[in-house]
Specification:
By secondary structure, this protein is mostly helical. The chain contains 12 helices and no strands. The chain is rod-shaped.
Length: about 375
């Protein structure tokens, strides 16, 4: 077997510098070759780009036109936005005035409608009350009482509803920004609302007392009827005595309840008339009971105790007729549209003036114009 020749160590050491020099030369050539390749690639890419431009002149023109169009659209859009903002700021006072008038006008007419609805309710209640007041039978007294009590409840509820609506409109107007040119109108509207609330409070207090007054008097004495006429036809003294003893007890109980009330000034006349009627009942009942409790006169030519007692009833009826007419008139006035309209009398002048002013302002007020883009921009933005 042949063995590889082994070079001496000195020979190896002498060959190392030569090899290193050869390696550096090869590395330098490789870098030069790489740079050349890269440069050549860039040159080729640029040549390709130039050839592309030479082949596509129309595309270049289209790009320029597109850039110009986009620029014009941006300029027009910016100008339109600026113009819109300028017009919006310019018309802001008009917009504020229109908003105020919408709130003020709708609130005022809503409050006005509440008053009209309330007066219409008085008309219905007054008609029902007049029908009941025309009845004369004692049996109808309790039904008339409950008709009036129901109407009082309905009327009080209507007054409360109207008052709440007016208070709401007043508070809403207070929270609304008032343009300077409408300051006087705003103050007059608020004053109208305050006066209306005062009238509603007065009406509510009046009808609440009327209800307390009615309940204290009781259902059996609503029609101011002194007696049940059919009872006298029976000719039974004991039954008549029992009837008037019951009337006397109920009348005294009603007088006690009435004494606990403090009538307002406009109710004092009606209140005193009701008290006088009840006192007449008690006095008449005492006399009838006393007469019927006595023995019959043996002289047949003299009137019987029943006839004497009936004469007491007839005399009391003449006196009671005055009381009855006064009380019927007072009840009719309580629900009378004309009578209640007087409560709103001071408001009617203000109401008519405000209605006229609001109508004139609405006719003359300016409408905010809606800004529109130019026609050519509308076409551009829609395509």
């Amino acid at each position: 077997m042949l063995m590889p020749a082994v070079l001496p160590q000195a020979t190896l050491l002498q060959s190392l510098p030569a090899r290193a020099s050869i390696g550096r030369s090869l590395s330098k050539r490789a870098r030069i070759k790489t740079d050349y390749s890269h440069t050549r690639m860039l040159a080729e890419s640029y040549k390709d780009y130039l050839r592309f431009l030479e082949k596509s002149p129309r595309l270049q023109i289209f790009q320029k036109v597109l850039v110009i169009i986009i620029g014009l659209m941006l300029i027009a859009g910016g100008g339109s936005t600026a113009l819109f903002y300028w017009r919006y700021q310019k018309e802001q006072p008009i917009r504020l005035e229109n908003s105020y008038l919408e709130i003020a006008g709708s609130g005022f007419f809503s409050a006005q409608q509440s008053v009209n609805d309330l007066l219409a309710g008085f008309q219905v209640a007054g008609t029902k009350t007049d029908i009941v007041n025309d009845l004369k039978e004692a049996s109808a007294s309790s039904s008339g009482f409950f008709v009036l009590a129901d109407q009082l409840d309905r009327t009080i509820a209507s007054i409360e509803s109207a008052g709440e609506n007016v208070s709401f409109q007043k508070n809403q107007l207070r929270q609304t920004q008032t343009p300077s040119r409408f300051t006087d109108l705003n103050n007059r509207l608020l004053s109208f609302y305050d006066k209306s609330i005062g009238v509603f409070d007065s009406l509510k207090s009046r009808h609440q007392f009327a209800k307390e007054f009615l309940l204290s008097a009781g259902p059996n004495f609503y029609l101011q009827v002194l007696s049940d006429e059919a009872l006298w036809q029976t000719g039974k003294n004991e039954e008549i005595i029992a009837y008037f003893e019951n009337i006397k007890t109920e009348a005294n109980d009603s007088l006690r309840k009435l004494s606990e009330l403090e009538p307002p000034e406009d109710f004092k006349g009606q209140f005193q008339t009701q008290v006088s009627y009840m006192e007449l009942l008690v006095k008449m009942a005492d006399n009838i009971i006393s007469i019927l409790s006595q023995q019959e006169d043996l002289n047949v030519e003299n009137a019987t105790q029943l006839e004497k007692a009936y004469q007491v009833l007839i005399g009391a009826r003449r006196e009671n007729e005055i009381f009855r007419e006064e009380l019927i008139s007072a009840r009719s006035e309580l629900f009378s549209p004309e009578g209640n309209l007087l409560q709103f009398g001071p408001l009617r002048i203000d109401e008519n003036t405000l209605t006229s002013d609001l109508e004139n302002i609405n006719i003359q007020r300016k409408q905010v114009k809606t800004y529109k883009l130019p026609v050519f921009l509308q076409k551009l933005t829609t395509h």
